[in-house]
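User: Quick sanity check before I run a bigger batch. Here is a single chain. Can you write out its predicted 3D structure?
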Amino acid sequence: MPEQPHEPEGAIAGTGMGAAMDLGVSEAETLEGTAGGPGGTGPAGRPHSLWSDAWRDLRRNPVFIVSALVIVFLVFISLWPAAIASGSPLKCDLAKAQDGAGPGAPFGYDGQGCNVYTRTVYGARTSVTVGVLATLGVAVVGSVLGALAGYFGGVWDSVLSRITDIFFAIPVVLGGLVLLSVVTSNTVWPVIGFMVLLGWPQISRIARGSVITVKQNDYVQAARALGASDSRILLRHIAPNAVAPVIVVATIALGTYIALEATLSYLGVGLKPPSVSWGIDISAASPYVRNAPHALLWPSGALALTVLAFIMLGDAVRDALDPKLR
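Assistant: Done. Predicted structure follows.
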C-alpha cells in the first residue's frame, strides 16, 4: 500500500500557533485562571504566590473597587481639602446660624454659623490621620510583641498573655474617659497614644497565633537546621507568611479607630475646639437637631461612610487572603 504523506513539523507548529491565536478572550482567561490558581504557575512557568493571587482576586471584586475609590477620595481631601472646599472651617457668622443650604454652603450652616460643608471636608483630615496613625502604631507594637511571644514561647509567652488579658478587661470608652480627661493637649497625639495603648493586645494575639502556626512548617525547620539565626528566621521566613491575618484585622480596625475618635470627641475627652473633627461637629449639632438637622446629618453621614468603606475593604482583603475561601 502507498505510504500516507506525513505533515511537515513546521506545519504542525504553525497550526498550533494559529489555534492559540484564535482562542477567544473567555477561553484565554479560563486557561490563565487554571494555571494561576493556588499552587499553579503563571507566565514563563513562574509559580503564583499568595499575594499575586490575592491581588488578582481583589481587582475582580466590586466591593474592593468601590471601597478603595471611597478611601482614595478621603485621602485626597485629607491632603488637599482646599481643592474642593474654599474658605476656613473656623470662619463663622452668627447671623447665618442654623441657615439651610445656600451659595457657597451646600450643606447649610451649624448653630455657630459655620459652613457645614467646609467643616465636613476638613474633618476628614483629622479622622483619617488618627485612624491611619493609630492603626500603624497598633500593628507595629502588637505584631512585634505577638511574634516574639509566638516564636520563643515559654515564660515570655506566658507573661505577655497575662498582660493582654489585663488590657482586654479595660472597657475602651470608659478607659478613654478616665485617661484622656486629665490630658490638656489639643493635638491628636494623646488620642492616638490611647488607641495604641488599648489596641495592641488584639493584634498581638492574632500575630502570636499566626506565628505559632507558621513556625511549624518544614521550611522553617529546614532554615533552623541550616543554622539560620532567630532574627533571620523571623524576618525572612515567618513574617512574610504570618502577616496576612494582621493586615486583615488592622484594615478593619482602622475604621473602628476612626469611629472611636469621633466617639471620644463627642464625649468631650478626645479632640477639642478649635480642632475640626466630625465628632466635635456631631456633638455641637446635637442640641439643634430639631431646628437644623442638616448640621448633624452631613458629618454623621461622612463618618458612617468612612467607617463602612474601611470595613468593606477589610472584608475584601480577608476574602482574598484566606485560602479556604478560594
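Residues 116-152 form the longest helix (37 residues).

User: Great, the batch can go ahead then.
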